[in-house]
Amino acid sequence: MTDTSGKSTGAHEAAPTSRRTFIATAAAASAAVVAAPAVHAQAPIKLKFQSTWPNKDIFHEFAGDYVKRVNSMTGGRVELELLAAGSVVPAFQMADAVSTGILDGGHGVSAYWYGKNKAFSLFGTAPAFGWDADELLGWVRYGGGQQLYDELITDVLKLNVVGMLYGPMPTQPLGWFKKEITSADDMKGMKYRTVGLGADLNKELGAAVTIVPGGEIVPAIDRGLLDGAEFNNPSSDLVLGFPDVSKTYMIQSYHQALECFEILFNKTKFSALPADVQAILKSAGDAASSDMMWKAQDRYSKDLEAIKARGVKVIPTPKPVLEAQLAAWDKVIANLSADPFFKKVIDSQKAWAQRIVGFRLQYEVDSRMAYDHFFGKA
Q1: What is the spatial order of strands in the sheet that 313-316 belongs to?
Q2: Beta-bridge partner residues of 50
Q3: How does pLDDT run across 285-321, given as a tens digit for each residue?
C-alpha cells in the first residue's frame, strides 16, 4: 500500500511494534498473577454419616463403598465421614439422630424403624410375594413405592429426613440353631432373633422373638439368651462369629425373602446443598447398588464355602416350614391391613409383584435345568 505521498505504509512496518506491545502486556499480566495473593479453594462440605453396622461387617463395607463414591463424584466438594454403629448413637437410634440433626446422614435398613410404624418394614422386608429384592426396587422406582415411602416419612411420621432405597439383598437364611429345624413346631417357644415384619411372622409360628442389632446377636446366643437367630448373609454371619456358637445353619426362608438398604440424610441439611450435589447423593446410591450386587455374588458364595469348612451343617429349610411361613404371612398381612396406610402399600406391592413376577416366570427360561445340565445338581 502507499499513501498520497507515495510512501509505503504496509502492515509489515506496524507488526514489530504490535509484537513488542503484546509481549510487554503479557509479561505485565504474568507478573500481576505472580504478585496476587493465593486464592484458596472453598472448604468441602463435611457430613457426619453413621451406619447401623459393626465396623467389621460387610454391610459397613457397603456403606463405605457409597461414601467413597460420593466423595469421588463430588471431586472433594463433599466429604462424608463414615462412622460405625454406636460411634455417635446406637444402631436403632440412627434414624432419629438423622432427623434431629445429631447426624447428617446414615446407612441402614427400613426394618430397623419397624417400631415407629410397621409399614416402614414393607420398604425393606416386604412379604414373600414371589418377587426378589431387585423387583422390590423396581416397585420403588417405577411402581409408586418411592411416593409411598415419602408419604410415610413426611406425612405419617413427620420425620425431618430424606430417604433413598438401594442395594438389593438375596433371600436371608432361616438362621443359626442348636439343632436342625424339621417342622414349624420346632419354632414354638424358641427365643429367636429377627427384625421387622419377620418378627410378626415368627410370632405367628409361636416363637418368642427378640429384636437386637447385628453386633449383639452372637454374644446373646453364647450366653443362652437366644436359641436361634438370623442376620442376613454368609459374609456377615462368618465375620460376626456365628460358626463359633452354632453348627446348624438353615438356609432359605420366606420370613425375609427380599430386602434392600436405606440411605438417610437430614432433610434440612440435604435441602441446603447445591442441586448438583443432591443429584450426586442420589445417583451414587444407584451406582453403588449395582456394584454391591456384583460384590455380593463373589463374597457370599465364597463365604458360604468357608462356613462349611468350619464344620457347619448347611441345611435347606424343609418345605413344611416354608408352607407354614406363607400361611403366617396371610395372617400378618390381614391383621396389619386394618391400618389404611399399611393396606395402601400392600395393595400397591401386590399389584406390582403379580405383574412383574408373572412376567418373569413365563418369560425367562429355567436356570435350574441349565445348571444341572452343565454342573450336576447343586
Answers
A1: 208-210, 191-193, 228-229, 175-177, 248-251, 313-316
A2: 83, 106
A3: 999 999 999 999 999 999 999 999 999 999 999 999 9
Distance CA 175, CA 214 (A): 13
pTM: 0.86
Distance CA 288, CA 312 (A): 32
Backbone angles phi and psi of 229, in degrees to 5: -165, 155
Q: Are 235 and 173 in contact (CB under 8 A)?
A: no
- Res. 30 pLDDT band, cuts 50 70 90: very low
Domains of the chain: 45-173+254-362 (3.40.190.170)
The Cα–Cα gap between 72 and 78 comes to 9
Q: How far is CA 163 from the centre of its chain?
A: 11
User: The C-alpha cell of 230 is what?
Assistant: 438370623
SS3 state at 260: strand
Order across the sheet with 45-51: list the strands: 78-83, 45-51, 105-108, 259-266, 161-169
211 and 52 Cβ atoms separated by less than 8 Å: no
Contact 197, 114 (CB under 8 A): yes
HSE value, Cβ hemisphere, 13 Å, CA-based, for 55: 5
Q: Which has the higher per-residue pLDDT, 39 or 140?
A: 140
Please report, as a single letter, which amino acid is at residue 349. Q
> Pairing between strand 248-251 and 313-316?
parallel
Residue 135 makes CB contacts below 8 A (sequence gap 6+) with 258, 352, 353, 356, 357, 360
User: HSE of 125 in the Cβ direction (CA atoms, 13 Å)?
Assistant: 26
Nearest to 208 by CA among 223, 222, 187, 224: 187
